[in-house]
Amino acid sequence: MGMVIPAKKYLRKPGRPKAVPEEYEPLVVELYDRGYGYRAIARILRKEHGLNPDFTSVRRTLIRLGKVVKANRD
Known about the structure:
Elements: H1 25-33, H2 38-49, H3 55-64
Helix pairs in contact: 2-3
């Protein structure tokens, strides 16, 4: 039979950590809902929280969370 793997909250491959950690995702969503743009959110995370995300990391986080619809460039 196969090996039993205990269930985890989520499975991630080892590698580079996320630029925007999961514990900051609610803050990113809140700032976006308050009208801040990607660059402003990245600047706030950099200056006030010691993270170093690029604005594209903020954008990808919001797309993944379903807050932004990715533009179709066909």
